[in-house]
Amino acid sequence: MAEGLPEPQPTAIEWPTPQTNPTGTPAPNPSTASLAAWAAALSPKLDIPAVAIQAYGSAELKLAETRPSCHLAWTTLAGLGSIESNHGRTAGSTLLEDGRTSKPITGIPLDGRSNTQVIKDTDQGQMDGDREYDRAVGPMQFIPSTWKTWGADGNADGTIDPSNIFDAALAAANYMCSGTRDLSNPADWQSAVLSYNAVQIYLRDVFAKADDYGKRSRGR
Predict the structure, then answer these.
(1) Is the sign of the CA dihedral 75, 77, 80, 82 positive or negative?
(2) Contact at 8 Å (CB) between 84 and 66?
(3) Helix (H, G, I), strand (E, B) or coil at 95
(4) Cα(213)–Cα(220) distance, rounded to whole angstroms?
(5) What are the C-alpha distances in Å from 191 to residues 7, 8, 146, 198, 209?
(6) Partner residues linked to 133 by β-bridges
(7) Which of 47, 135, 167, 182 fits a disulfide with 154 by CB distance 3.0 to 4.6 angstroms?
(8) Average pLDDT over the chain, rounded to whole?
(9) In terms of Cα–Cα distance, which of 30, 72, 38, 31 is closest to 54?
(10) What is the rounded CA–CA span in Å between residue 120 and residue 84?
(11) Distance CA 27, CA 29 (A)
């Protein structure tokens, strides 16, 4: 956890949001090639697959157009992606060049055990392969009911796939920017992360990762 960061609390407190807009962030509406080059340059510095950085950056730029008042930073998405699936690298998976995971990433059944909420099956097992309970799916770990509402086509390939980091990152961005949230506001940033997983240690872990990515992307 970042040194000197106060203990997060349910109410708004004075602590910084993750570093944003690192040096080298592409200008709005970059070409796919320039976004890929930006991501490739950051990848070895951050130990994040280039395709994942590209997906997080693409989502930030899309939200800057569709929801500019939200002020979403790619580093926040990277923080989430790190905790949720190590950027698509958990359970022996890797990210392919098109953003898909090389093998399915499926969470444990949400059956009330292991400190989980009980969520009975909502998709007849079509998305998560479980007809009894829902499970989180893909690199950003969406449960089927949430994906049904927020699923997005982040790479404009005509498919909305929770196992594709481009789609999952844009869906996460839209989800976190729901309502009137302004993620440059510490209270709204906390609210957005806790809406993803309402656990205080999760909030701290996402903050630490996002803040670290922002600082290291600047060379600090």
Answers:
(1) negative
(2) no
(3) strand
(4) 10
(5) 15, 11, 17, 9, 17
(6) 120
(7) 167
(8) 83
(9) 38
(10) 21
(11) 6
Determine the Cα–Cα distance for residues 83 and 76; give it in Å rounded to an integer.
Answer: 11
Tokens of 10: 């349910």
Which residue has 């509406």 as its token pair? Answer: 29
Residue 137, phi then psi, degrees to nearest 5:
-130, 145
Residue 158: its H or E element: none
Structure-token match 């958990």, residue found: 90
Asked if residues 159 and 130 have their Cβ atoms less than 8 Å apart, the reply is no
Q: Could you read off the pLDDT of 17-54 as tens digits, one per residue?
A: 444 443 344 444 456 778 888 999 999 999 999 999 99
End-to-end alpha carbon distance in the chain: 16
Q: Decide if pLDDT at 136 tops 50.
A: yes
For the stretch 157-181, pLDDT in tens is 999 999 999 999 999 999 999 999 9
